[in-house]
Design goal:
The protein is mainly alpha-helical and about 60 residues long. The chain has four helices and no strands.
Length: about 60
């Protein structure tokens, strides 16, 4: 029957995670996950979009503009 103390601790931790704002170091997370800058662009920017004249489904339909 000693589950009361463990449950109280779990509730305390869950409450802290829910209500306390924690600083997340995104650069450290990126390094830890091994994400390359070339994939995300510089400073997390998205890769450039495709040229609007090219349709990504042209290869599937057999039609080209």
């Amino acid at each position: 029957m000693g589950r009361g103390r463990a449950k109280a601790k779990q509730q305390k931790v869950a409450r802290e995670l829910k209500y306390n704002a924690h600083f997340t170091d995104l650069d450290a997370l990126q390094r830890e996950l091994g994400v390359a800058d070339s994939v995300n662009g510089v400073n997390g920017a998205h890769a450039p979009a495709q040229d609007s004249d090219e349709d990504e489904y042209d290869d599937w339909t057999g039609t080209e503009r």
